[in-house]
Design brief:
This protein is α+β, with helices and mostly antiparallel strands and 127 residues long. The chain is built from 4 helices and 2 strands, in the order αααββα. The protein has helices at residues 11-20, 35-40, 60-66, 112-123; strands at residues 90-97, 100-107. Strands 1-2 form a two-stranded antiparallel ribbon.
């Protein structure tokens, strides 16, 4: 794991500087390893103004009122063996052919249709 870097005028100076680096770790308490522990200790990712994000389509309150059944409870899911490390980003390459320009989009996404719609909306065109 990379936790820092040394920049110098030569490789030798960079290596010498790296040898002088000392890392001091601070033990944090409590150790939070589950969602339940995060809730217990009120430890949430992001700043307080980012903690109440939700995705809503339509009128949620009205939908709940009109529903025949509403289920409430807690859903637990086990740990996962994988964790993505790629950045959430994409690269757009304009490619001109005659009078037309195409956009070749390279994206790290599991939802290419959403990327296509967002680009079309930003450009004021249709998918």
């Amino acid at each position: 794991m990379v936790i820092g870097l040394c920049v110098a005028d030569t490789e030798e100076h960079a290596r010498q500087a790296a040898e002088l680096v000392r890392i001091k770790y601070e033990e944090l308490s409590p150790v939070i390893l589950s969602i339940d522990e995060a809730i217990k200790y009120e430890s949430y990712l992001g700043s307080p103004d980012q903690q109440e994000k939700s995705l809503q389509v339509g009128n949620i309150d009205q939908g709940l009122l009109e529903s025949d059944n509403v289920l409430e409870g807690t859903f637990y899911i086990g740990g996962q063996e994988h964790f993505y490390m790629e950045p959430n980003a994409f690269v757009v390459q304009p490619v001109s052919e005659g009078h037309y320009t195409q956009l070749h989009v390279y994206s790290t996404t599991q939802a290419p249709s959403q990327v296509q719609r967002a680009i079309a909306e930003a450009l004021g065109t249709m998918c």
